Fold this sequence. Notes:
There is one protein chain. By secondary structure, the protein is α+β, with helices and mostly antiparallel strands. The chain has helices at about 5-20, 110-115, 140-150, 160-175, 180-185, 190-205, 210-220, 225-235, 240-255, 260-265, 275-285, 290-295, and strands at about 25, 35-40, 45-50, 50-60, 60-65, 70, 75-80, 85-90, 100-105, 130-135. The longest helix is centred in the C-terminal third of the chain and has 19 residues, at about 240-255. The N and C termini lie far apart (about 40 Å).
Amino acid sequence: MSEMMTLQQNELVTIIERHAVTDGVHPTAVPSLYFMRLSHAFESKHGVYKPSLCMVVQGAKEVYLAHDRYRYSPSDYLVVSVHLPVTTQVTEAAPDAPYLGFKLEFTPSQILEVLRETDVQAQPTENPKRAIFVSQMETSLMDAIIRLARLVDRPQDIPFLAPLFTKEIIYKTLQGENGGVLGQIAMEGSSTLQIKAVIDQIMNQYDRAFRIEELAEIANMSVSSFHRHFKEVTALSPIQFQKHLRLQEARRLLLTESEDATDVAFRVGYESPSQFSREYSRMFGFPPRQDIKRLKT
């Protein structure tokens, strides 16, 4: 890491520590920008990543998508280009040196706007790549990130400058070694964009049963081609993807709304409470009631 980038990294640590004084995820006054702080490494957590650029500013973190592992630290950044159900684990954190994170969410329309206004090339391809990657941080990208973060202390500048700096971050990411993966999500005719349409459908109606033919039709693909492309993008089959969403939502409901596992099973789309309990145990390591009791203590 260059001397300049080290200085910027230290400044970013100072900004996040000032605005994230307690553990957790902290929204900022900058639209779609979040700071994270954790004082201790934690066991695996399950969640859905939205399209975003994520950066470990202090500490280290691992993200698992199915059997793929992505580890990143302050010299890297991680990009997710579609909604993905993942497992995360902060591996380096301590009270005197907490894990600090930076996350900027974005939309395909923002990416498309940058592509239309610049000479960055992102051509549709028949063979999509995994919609998540880790790349080495570059000085020019870090420069745009630190300028966006500084706006948290200058709220009067946010309405005008935040959109410009966000576009610059997207632009620099598109220029990076894996930028083509991000660009595909906004390109008309790309198979990644076709798969995104299916992901959106499953996200919006995770509790209903889908026929694979119906999903393939949404993607405008044959069944066999759809299966292959969906797994290339998400590392999961459509059924596995939906199952992850259902079980994560079930866990949230059990923690916040209802302790009746049977009721929650039906609410998230399961027809068999026993199947729900088996699959819940397989994902989270404990049956529903035992898991929720453990989490609440």
